[in-house]
Structures are given as structure tokens and as C-alpha cells.
Model the fold of this input.
Amino acid sequence: MLNWFRNIFAAVATVSHALWVGLRYWIRTYDPQRRTFTEKYEFPELPVAVAPRFRGYHRFDLTTCIACEACARACPANCIEIGKQKAPEKKGFQLTEFVIDYGKCLFCALCVEPCPVDCIFMGSSHDLSCYSRDGCRVDFSRLPVEIAWGKATLEPLAVALSKSVLRPVHGGPNQ
Done:
């Protein structure tokens, strides 16, 4: 019976000590001027600042891509699909699609290194939201060039509108 009371006392003492530590740190760090996360960053209007080496959604320069598929071969998740066709009356290939499935992408940047013409980079945008898995598949050849290259943000509305475009917006360097 004495052992039972000893265990009850140890449990109450441990819980009260933990509550005291939590209360002590709350009193030390309490700041009445501190704002909530959404008040501090105002996300859609003022995006969160990212680190300089942040690996976000890709930037892709459609005008210099030679469709060599080095990035697709280097991708460990197999999330890059490249469609190409022989350029008419010219040497080389013409890019017909460049799709990255961000549902599979690891954001490891292994696709950036093997590119011989440096047409793919890791961007700084991090807010491509979608309601379906189809919205995570981005075809950079059907996006407007200023969005694909990263001069404008890669936004869900632009991705959704690009799914209705039937032909690539630019034929590549061989056109």
C-alpha cells in the first residue's frame, strides 16, 4: 500500500513540475505585441521571404532547350516527361511538351546539373496549390514564356489556363 501512495505522489510531482516549467517559459516569452503568422506575413499579398538557396518550383527556359532529356534521365523520381519531334528541314529536335509532375517531385535539384544549355533552374516560388492531382502536372511548353522562365510567378490560374492550350507557345531554339 505504501508503494502505491509513493507512485501516486511521484506522478503528481512529475506532472506539476512539467506544468511549472511550461508556465515559467510562457511567462518569460510572452509578448503582447506579437502578431499571428497571418498578420505578420499577409501571405497572398506579401509572400514569405525565402532563403537564397531555397529550391522551389522550377524555372524553365523553353527558348534554349534542345530536348536532350538529360534532366529526365537524372531525375530519381521520374517526374519529368519530355516530348519531342524531329525539327522540319533542320538539324535537331523540336520540343512538344515539357511536363513536371510536382506530385512526385522531390525538389532535389538533380535535374539542374546535367543540363548542357542551362535551361532549367530551381526557382523561389513555393505556393502552387491545386485541388486535384492533375493540377500538380505543369507543362512548361504551354505556359506563357514569362511565367515559364520565372519572370512572373508560377501561379495555379496560369497552370490551369495552360491546360487548354493545344500547341507549345514556342518551338525551341531550332525554330
